[in-house]
Amino acid sequence: MEVDSANSRHAALLKRKATDSINEILNYGQSSTSPQKRTKKTAHHKIRDIDAYKKIIKTYKAPTWYGCAVTPRDLADFGWACVKKDCVQCVECEQYLNTSLPNICKVSFNVYNSSLQDIHQKLTTAHRTTCKLRTGAPPFRITEPSSKEIMEGVQGRLTDIKNIEEDEFKVDIPSDLHLPKLEGVSDKFMYVAILGWFVSKPKRGALIFCCDYCARELAIRTGNKFDAIHNHERWCPRIDSDEHGETSWQSDINIVMNTKNYFPHHNKYHGSAIYREAMAARRLLDNSLSTIISPSLITPPSS
Ligand SMILES: [Zn+2]
Ligand SMILES: [Zn+2]
Questions:
Q1: 243, containing H or E segment
Q2: If you measure from the C-alpha of residue 21 to the centroid of ligand 1, how many angstroms do you get, rounded to a whole number?
Q3: Nearest ligand for residue 210 CA
Q4: Angstrom distance (rounded) from CA 289 to CA 3
Q5: Count of domains in the chain?
Q6: Are residues 206 and 274 in the same domain?
Q7: 209 C-alpha vs ligand 2 centroid, how far in Å?
Q8: How far apart are CA 155 and CA 177, in angstroms?
Q9: What range(s) does the C3HC-type domain occupy (predicted)?
Q10: Do residue 22 and residue 114 come from a single domain?
Q11: Which of 87, 89, 91, 221 is the most exposed place for a label (fewest CB within 10 A)?
């Protein structure tokens, strides 16, 4: 598909402006808060149930799930698991939600867009009124994980590397990246593990890379290159960026390496309704460019 570059540049500009305003809202109040207050944790922090999320995200697999403009992550945030084609079900109240969208080539942009908005609204309203998942899950990182937690995660993902040789796959590690060291673990394995990948070798000649945050599972022929960043789904929490543009895996490395100038980003609005709303709005916005295709982008360019 040809993409009208002027249009997509304009859309990118609008998206950036909107993201900036949301970031402003998210950071509002940070500078006026004293350090003492900033480190004091508020009592109403809800902790994200990561295991429940992982279980749900696993249901979004082909051929049942073949993609929709609403991402599995958005659906999982509200407790919706994929049960059959175009149909998700709440793991708590067992209500169903239809996720089918009209064919973008057959309906007007407005019709398509309002169907999409409709699904987004139903993420909340399709639950039973008493369902606790109606309000959506809190963000993944309300508080930073500890160095110990991060390294335990890394070690857990490296349990199968014993029978994998160093030269069985290639990766491009950014040259300025300082990786944590673990005895008997090369930088290559450390890099893929810190980026959230489980590596295994179920049979000769092939390696399997899995991410339990986006349920991506990739087989590569031994000796081939593996792109540890871009092989995640674009919505994967492993590659999320915070309000300062730092990805969660980079901040994991910084925590473990105790990098200078590193300050955990405490924000008195974390966990509050406005923070969650702003985070949700930003995610919607992040997804909007790649999921909503405006008619101008699908019209063939005039020659
Ligand atoms: Zn429900
Ligand atoms: Zn992932």
A1: none
A2: 32
A3: 2
A4: 12
A5: 2
A6: no
A7: 10
A8: 19
A9: 49-166
A10: yes
A11: 221
* Domain-embedded: residue 263: no
Specify if 303 maps to a domain: no
Ligand 2 (single-atom ion) residues, CB below 5 Å: 211, 213-214, 232, 236, 238
Distance 95 CA to ligand 2 centre (A): 27
Looking at the CA of 230, which ligand is closest? 2
Same domain, 204 and 88: no
Three-state SS for 273? helix
The CA 47 to ligand 1 mean position distance, Å, reads 19
Q: At which residue do the structure tokens 């809800």 appear? A: 46
φ, ψ dihedrals at 247, nearest 5°: -75, 160
| Domain match, 108 and 172 both | no
Q: Mind listing the pLDDT tens digit for each residue in 193-243?
A: 999 999 999 888 899 999 999 999 999 999 999 999 999 999 999 999 988
Q: Could you tell me if 132 and 276 lie in one domain?
A: yes
Q: What is the pLDDT of residues 244-302, one digit of tens each?
A: 888 999 999 999 998 544 444 444 445 556 656 666 666 666 555 444 444 444 445 44
Domain residues for the domain of 179 are 147-257
Range list of β-strands (E), the chain: 80-84, 87-90, 96-98, 198-203, 206-210, 217-221
32 with 135, same domain?
yes
CA of 134 to the centre of ligand 1 (A): 6
